Amino acid sequence: MIAKELQEEVYNCIKCGICMNACPVYKQLHVEGAAPRGKVQLIKKIQEGKFDISEGFKNLLYTCLLCETCTVNCPSGVKIDRLFKAMRAEVLKKYKLPLLKRIMSTVLSSDQLLPFCMFWGRTLGNPLMALLPKNGKIGAISFSKLPKFNGKPLMDQYPEIISPSGKAQGRVIYFPGCANNFLFENVGNSTIKVLQRLGVEVVFPKDLKCCSLPIFLSGARQMALSNIKSNLSAFSRYDNVDAIIVDCATCGAAFKEEYVHILGEMGEDTKEAQKVKNKVMDISQYLAKFDLKKYLQPLKGRVTYHDPCHLVRSQKIKDEPRALLKQIPGLDFAEMVGADVCCGGGGTFQLDHPDISVSITKNKIQSIRNTGADTVASGCPGCRLQINGNLGNEKIRVVHPIELLAEAMGKV
Ligand code: SF4
Ligand code: SF4
């Protein structure tokens, strides 16, 4: 059964239903079992031995974006998302992970398979992508909007120590995450170049692994364990750094919130995870201490910002990315309605439930259009895929805030 302290959570639910009205999935389905309150009550019955873990319960549990909107809105402070995450691990003791997620988790947790698959992705996948039917989709994302693989993994493009030209003003570790390492190299290049321009020495360990969040959120905690331990050990080699910098909301959430909880709930030592939690900073947080204005050239256009769930709710980072964008001269910042509402991607949720996912994303796209912005900034590769993959033919580009900052620095 789930960890003792989480078991008590179900008794804090007063069945008020406030979480239901906030839940993007419930708003689409209007089914109590798919709502957070319904799932909490089902977990309570299972804990009390009144219900078994069934196929139906499993399906309801995975009909969830893990967006944490319910948790932050619950007046009783029920740790709803923690309950759901722990319960997914229980479900996998009875049911197998679906084939696609099993393959994905195996690849992401393997030192050999991940580079092998990424090599063939860029060698064969990139040319083959052009042959995919234009109107085809993978989950909720159009084939035509899939990103190309980086020509070379980001990690192979830099030495382990990237020194600034003058005297170092700081020293940080950079964690690129799989998305930037293999797909969105411009995000990683922008982060490194902005840090260099500010005189910060960047340590780029070569043995970093996938943060494992997609693995353990699917419930496969044991599969994620070796990556978690390996990353903690890689970070521990450098205790003389100011911060561990991440520019992926999901990786940041893994290091700041998930590692300590998961290791604790699995009865593992949490000392190193706690140290890492205190050192990790999103790039937007780290840059808040610098006077950036003197480095920035004007950009043209209007930008709006989408809050990734893993940044705004998991890490409580809301103002810092906006502050970065608002500092760029010439760039008009327009706040969208519902900026912090989940985009509907939810990692693999968009693969499992493409129809629900697209219905949620449509509202986000409309909010973006209403601002008249030509650019949407967001610090999460998953949100980027989901938003870009569901935009029409309009010329709205989706970027990470750090890419705009690097552009305003003249690409350094
Ligand atoms: S908001 Fe909290 S207390 Fe109210 S129904 Fe949802 S889980 Fe229960
Ligand atoms: S995490 Fe999000 S999608 Fe899941 S139940 Fe809570 S509000 Fe709904």
Short structural description:
With about 400 residues, the protein is of the alpha/beta class. The chain contains 22 helices and 11 strands. β1 and β2 form a beta hairpin.
Overview of this protein structure:
The chain is an alpha/beta fold and 412 residues long. Among the domains are: 4-94, Alpha-helical ferredoxin (Fumarate Reductase Iron-sulfur Protein, Chain B, domain 2); 291-408, Rossmann fold (3-Layer(aba) Sandwich). The protein has 22 helices and eleven strands. The protein has helices spanning 4-7, 18-22, 24-29, 36-47, 55-62, 69-73, 80-94, 99-108, 113-129, 177-182, 185-197, 213-217, 221-236, 249-265, 271-279, 283-286, 309-312, 319-327, 349-352, 354-371, 381-390, 401-408; strands at residues 137-138, 141-142, 161-162, 170-175, 200-203, 243-246, 280-282, 302-305, 332-333, 375-377, 397-399. Helix 11 crosses helix 22 (401-408) and helix 14 (249-265) packs antiparallel against helix 15 (271-279). The mean pLDDT is 93. The protein binds iron/sulfur cluster (SF4) (2 copies). Residues 22-25, 36, 64-70, 80-81 line the site of one iron/sulfur cluster.
Considering DSSP H and I runs of 4 or more, what fraction of the residues is helical?
A: 40-55%
List the uncertain runs.
Answer: none
- N-to-C terminal Cα separation, in Å? 53 Å
Strand content: 5-15%
Structural class: alpha/beta
Name some characteristics of this structure.
412 residues; alpha/beta; Fumarate Reductase Iron-sulfur Protein, Chain B, domain 2; Rossmann fold; four-stranded parallel β-sheet; globular; binds iron/sulfur cluster
